[in-house]
Amino acid sequence: MDRLWAPWRIKYILGGKPKGCIFCDKIAENRDKENLILYRAKKCFVIMNLYPYNSGHLMVVPNKHCEGIDELSGGDLLEVMKVTQKMIRVFEAAMRPQGYNIGINLGQVAGAGIHDHLHVHIVPRWLGDTNFMPVASDSKTINEDIARTYDKLAGAIREDTAKGQDRRGQSRGKG
After folding, report:
1. Quick check: helix, strand or coil at residue 48?
2. Is the entire prediction scored with pTM above 0.90?
């Protein structure tokens, strides 16, 4: 396999791994931009993936530390899905993707990098975003700096929240 120069990853590779839960730790801090937290609702929050599959890769994370969906109340599940819906509106306003991969990896063997705290991945997709790089060089390209994507999505979240209405003009309520 060929190698691409990616010096920013050495911080992740050599850096100390947190002893606790990264999601619980980040939500407890008051450094949302530094921690890439885009949005806080009552029962969940949205955080950008620091090592994304694609530009804009987000995760909707319940505030409650749990491994499985069966550990969440109906209200928690509903808010996670409503916030996921909100993030789709935000993506459409800010980045105009042509599709999405949305999913939950339950357990380490299923691909969960953080397997002890449930989270929903939202990965925006565009026609042609899978190009020759993964096939020819076993590498993925990310097309936009994460700080720029954060600012773009944060602005779209503010606008969406201020509107208080979905695409059909109906009141959404809170969340």
Report:
1. strand
2. no
